[in-house]
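Check this:
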Amino acid sequence: MQVTFIEKAWYTKHPLRWLLYPASCVFRLVTMCRRLYLKRCRQQRFSIPVIVVGNITVGGVGKTPLVIALAEQLRARGLRVGIVSRGYGANVAHFPYDVRVDDSADFVGDEPLLIAKKTGCPVVIAPIRAQAVHYLLEHHQSQVVVSDDGLQHYAMGRAVEIVVMDGVRGLGNGLCLPAGPLREGAWRLQQADFVVVNGAQWPNAYRMDLRPTAFIHLLSGNPVPISAFFSVPIAAVAGIGNPGRFFQTLHGLGVLFRAYPFADHHRFQPHELCFEEKVVVMTEKDAVKCRDFATDEMYFLPVDAVINSTFWDALWSHEQLQGVV
């Protein structure tokens, strides 16, 4: 699989990192000052607990499946759960906006729409996430809020922080942007309440695995056994933060495919999904963007976040959630 230049620079000992190191130091200083200012002077607290699921690296790490799993677990405990998201790429005129399951991904963003469809919980998007939390309190009487991303959005107070890491790529070269993939230094992991690692073991962290079940036919919604894709090569499409993870999953399942990576949140056009391979398989996040022009040969592969019960026991025992869960 082709590795991009920036991935080589961030996830190997590429000499370019030293050329960018001074800029990285400036970035780290600015972000630390920003964090201190927002936490002390601008942070808003809420009457209900806010659980933030975020990451300290650029790119996809598996936050959205964990947000969905959290919402499902909280609902199973009888709680009214609200979810907030920035709504990256949304074309909404006014925020906060209450996502509807019949909205288009172009209008509200792919991740908020996917979360709303999967959880059945109210999902509210707003660049200023505190506004979304207030909206959930006023209009949905939410008892707990889960924030999809927003770890660095320090104007939003939080009761629990969960940092998700990519178990394969880890922290890369350990440097902050632009010399490395970090939004904040590795020290930030020590301040989070929980660290969850996607697909690997990590010291003082909980392991999460993204477990696929069956392919889903995009038009009908019917499941198709994975074994149906063993004999004929297919086109594998991924417009997510780390397309390689999706392709590795397909490889691990024994599926024959040719990889077609796209940029995260890519807005697909019908002609972009015409390949030599007859069958097209994509991620569930991409599927919500392609339903309007789906063909009979399009499928997606949903995944569920699976975490050991020790994580859930530790989360429910957290002091900030006592009396709520």
